[in-house]
Specification:
The protein is α/β, with parallel strands linked by helices. Helix content is 52%, strand content 10%. The strands form two sheets. A six-stranded parallel sheet has the order 7-6-5-8-9-10, with helices on both faces. Strand 5, helix 10 and strand 6 form a beta-alpha-beta unit. The protein is elongated.
Amino acid sequence: MSLLVVGLSHRSAPVSVLERAALSADARAKLVHDTVAAEPATEAAVLATCNRIELYADVDKFHAGVAELSTLLAQHSGVGLEELTPYLYVHYEDRAVHHLFSVACGLDSMVVGEGQILGQIKDSLARAQELHTAGKLLNDLFQQSLRVGKRAHSETGIDRAGQSLVTFGLEQLAAGGAVEEWAAGRRALVIGAGSMSSLAAATLARAGVGEIVVANRTFERAERLARILTEGDDTAVSARAVRMDAVPGELTRADVVVSCTGATGLVLTADSVAQAVEGRVVGGTVDLVADAAARPAARTAPAAAASGTAAEENCPLDLAAVQGSTGFSVHGEAAVAGLDAATLEQHGAWVAGGTVDRRDTARRSPEADAELITALAATAATVGRIPELRRPEPVAVIPRPAPALFLLDLAMPRDIDAAVHRLAGVRLVDIESLAEASADAPMAADVDQVRRIVSDEVAAFGAAQRAAHITPTVVALRTMAADVVAGEIARLDGRLPDLDERQRGEIRQAVHRVVDKLLHAPTVRVKQLAAEPGGAGYADALRTLFDLDPETVAAVSRAGDSTDKKDRPA
């Protein structure tokens, strides 16, 4: 069996696709059940965060496994397979291990180095264990990934490479200012009481907000979070819980809103946010794309020509034919479209304050006309337009009022309508804008050290897995040898019934020592060889050379799995 991961993340897919492919808790449970029920897979786990959906499985066939896992992801996400496929990535065996270890260290996060992913990996493993879809491979893999992630954070400064998604989002809301100064005394509304919302609430409390209101569909969870915030040593803040139906009222009083729920639809619509800020923003909402025709004209002309009607005197163009060209100045692109070279030259000379003798243009050949038109086209391509008397009217920009309401949407799919971006007096930061902002975030030097840790850990994990793969065969071999010794000792007892117990013991120990010495070097060496890349074939060689019963080997494997499960900490 081999490890396979099929998934998509913010690195492979646009946020719009991730949003549509997001899985509810019930959908994730059904996905792993259907995966282990499929022929190629025996184990399965889903890692789903706000910016990734990944399906891990232990499969016996690569191509069949990829096809099956991709199809299952498409079916359960509701995104068609043809649409989803271009955004999927596939990792197999050591590359799959390397990927998860990198994810656990925060190297693959939207904000490099963030540590929240460790909790999400732990939750994914716990769900797979509860659903009985995680066997030895996935248990070993996910538990080791948690250890690797903790090692990276403790041995390096990867935390300095980036912040948590919450902190990064709040910094974006603060528009480059200090979060503590921006948050001081503000009233915050936190929608949701899960791990991400709890972290956001705690971060806001430490930043110095004056009040936090927690809203959640399960009121008891909201109460619990509010109590923790109020009684915490480092988060002591005035906090209270409300039910979800109280959100519209609380929205009118809030300065900062953080939303991260598992809802499949919008929690806050653009209309509800607009109503919440109504009266709090001078001038109300602003249409940022005002009609250019309604703005005052702002025209300029060369010093040789006066503005207004007089500026159009002696122009060689038929102005009446182009006055209705909406969106263009009358001497601009629309006016000169389709004119011959002579007229174009007359127009260019007129703009420059000179004249052109039409008799000269009449004597030019078609080839010369073509050259002039080509030159004018090159000029247009360079400066963006044919030389003209009056440039296009400048766009009048209406400044937005200062934000009265700050919104941070950390949910996937989104909780807050993206149309809120267009509302005056509102600043919205969501997963999509965070992805754009983090694309240029600087990488810390510690990232290279973490990458080395990941590479070392992947090699060690692979060696341990390969060595473990041959262990049942070695155990079966030693069991067979012990059975042979026992049979020979029993036959000796029948042939030499006069031996006393001491003599029998000496003979028994001598035979065991001979067998142990004969098997010691080969079994130690085969374990070493099996731990190396490509060493899986040594187990097959042992089974063939010693004619070991495959069922005996499988029974040892099953016994080992049972012991692992029994001894595994809850």
